[in-house]
Amino acid sequence: MGNLELSGVTTKHDSGQATAATLARVETGIARVTERLEALRNEEDEDGYINRPTEHALQITLDLLQSAYPLVGAGLPRPIITPDGLGGIRIEWRQGGEDIRLVCPAEPTGRLYIYYNLVDESNPGARGLDENIDHRATAYWLYRLLNS
């Protein structure tokens, strides 16, 4: 497998080298996510529901995804990005009947986790939570979604 340096993150590609088109698709995916997250900054809160995420939620989400996307490569489905109502962010990627949800809390003391619902030949209907989340774990679950 070849390695490619992209914004300080080493990415691996099965072909042995990344193409400019692949890098462009990864960068486009990151740009779309960043754009949607920035749009959430302008959301108006509703009675009893916080639509505008905290700076902590925005920063942790951006950090995770900007580091994870290049590790996964191109081909991720466009995520659904929503506020959680408490100042945090939920991001969901769906493919077929499977999904991965990244939940980023409003505060550092909140619960950061990924919920996964994947079809696994050895464990049909595999679903659960992963609470040991960093950019590598995020990339792992997104890769599993793409390759399951």
Structural features:
alpha+beta; 5-stranded antiparallel beta sheet; two-stranded antiparallel ribbon; 26% strand
Describe the protein's architecture and organization:
With 148 residues, this protein is α+β, with helices and mostly antiparallel strands. It has one domain (2-146). The chain contains 3 helices and 7 strands. A 5-stranded antiparallel beta sheet has the order 3-4-5-6-7. A hairpin with an 8-residue loop joins strand 5 and strand 6. The longest helix is centred in the first third of the chain and has 21 residues, at 20-40. The protein is globular. The two termini are 20 Å apart. Mean pLDDT is 84; it is low at 1-16.
Strands, helices and their partners?
Layout: E1 2-6, E2 9-13, H1 20-40, H2 55-72, E3 80-83, E4 89-95, E5 98-104, E6 113-118, E7 126-130, H3 135-146
Antiparallel strand pairs: 1-2, 3-4, 4-5, 5-6, 6-7
Helix pairs in contact: 1-2, 2-3
Q: How would you sum up this structure in a few lines?
A:
With 148 residues, the chain is of the alpha+beta class. 34% of the residues lie in helices and 26% in strands. The strands form 2 sheets. The protein has a 5-stranded antiparallel β-sheet with strand order 3-4-5-6-7. It has a two-stranded antiparallel sheet with strand order 1-2.
Total E-strand runs: 7
Distance between the termini: 20 Å
List low-pLDDT spans: 1-16
* SS-derived structural category: alpha+beta
Q: How many distinct folded domains? A: 1
Strand order of the largest sheet: 3-4-5-6-7
Q: Helix share of residues?
A: 25-40%
